[in-house]
Design goal:
Layout lengths: L1 E7 L3 H12 L6 E7 L4 H10 L7 E5 L7 H11 L4 E6 L2 E3 L3 H8 L4 E4 L2 E3 L2 H8 L6 H6 L1 H6 L7 H4 L22 E5 H6 L13 H11 L3 E4 L6 E3 L10 H20 L1
Parallel strand pairs: 1-2, 1-4, 2-3, 6-9, 7-10
Antiparallel strand pairs: 4-8, 5-10, 6-8
Protein name: Glycosyl transferase
Pfam families: Glyco_transf_7C, Glycos_transf_2
InterPro entries: Galactosyl_T_C, Glyco_trans_2-like, Glycosyltransf_2, Nucleotide-diphossugar_trans
Length: about 260
């Protein structure tokens, strides 16, 4: 089974769309664990309203709001996950109906997957948030007009799906295209590296650190582009005051690995 580890914080309107998109998956052999970094009761109430009629199990994990501590709540989610394969997703992302199926196709022993996203602009995001319910067919019927108007920044990856293959494999660690809102690995591998580094607080690069340590363990990183794209809703930029320090710490680990290799 697959476990979706769904990170959220105080945006229940977006989370509703995300969950509705997950409820219409072609592959329903998965569970959802919501990793809630201190949202208010509004998010809890939404989840409780959705849970009884949802086609798969939803577990809601919550921690007190003491700033950006996504790494801590995600580690709790990893621990309780019932699936042997983990897909990391953010609550401000909407998925395509074959999202689970496409990730399952890419799942491979000794590999991790870093997926891709399609950015939505502010006006399209506001429009979708007014929909009574998520409707992928309705969205897909307007793809070209969304692209021409700048509502989405990509078109073809939502129209064309490419299969599996060695061409997806990265030969070495690179920062590019690591998105914590869409990545996957085996639970055993996540546990083997101790999960996310909980000392990395504040927004920024905790996902790159996680991927680097998985690759450092010998895993091959595979691209999920042209297969697993998520629709990323527009939102204000997070507080990035910790981003530079977090990036510095990841670079230190990379340099330490390089020195170890050269000795």
């Amino acid at each position: 089974m697959i476990s979706i580890l769904l990170a959220t914080y105080n945006w229940p309107q977006a989370l509703k769309l995300c969950l509705e998109s997950l409820s219409t998956q072609t592959d329903l052999d998965f569970e959802i664990i919501i990793a809630d970094d201190g949202s208010s009761a509004q998010t809890k109430n939404l989840i409780e309203a959705i849970q009884p009629k949802f086609p798969v199990k939803i577990t809601h994990l919550w921690q007190e709001d003491q700033g950006f501590r996504k790494t801590r709540i995600l580690n709790q989610a990893i621990e309780v996950a019932g699936g042997e394969y983990l897909i990391f997703l953010d609550g401000d992302c909407i998925v395509q109906p074959d999202f689970i199926a496409e990730h399952r196709k890419l799942a491979q022993t000794d590999h991790l997957v870093t997926g891709s996203r399609v950015l939505l602009n502010e006006s399209l995001t506001l429009e979708l948030l007014t929909w009574a319910q998520w409707d992928f067919k309705k969205f897909a019927n307007n793809l070209l007009s969304y692209r021409l108007s700048g509502g989405i920044n990509k078109y073809w990856p939502l129209k064309i799906k490419l299969g599996n293959g060695a061409w997806r494999n990265y030969q070495k660690f690179v920062w590019r295209r690591i998105k914590g809102c869409n990545m996957a690995c085996w639970k055993a591998d996540a546990l083997a590296i101790g999960g996310f580094d909980e000392t990395m607080t504040g927004w920024g690069h905790e996902d790159a650190d996680f991927v680097f340590r998985l690759q450092n363990r010998g895993l091959i990183r595979k691209s999920g582009s042209w297969s697993t794209e998520v629709l990323h809703l527009h939102h204000r930029i997070n507080d990035q005051s910790n981003a530079a320090e977090n990036a510095r710490r990841v670079r230190e680990k990379i340099l330490a690995k390089a020195r170890q290799k050269n000795n």
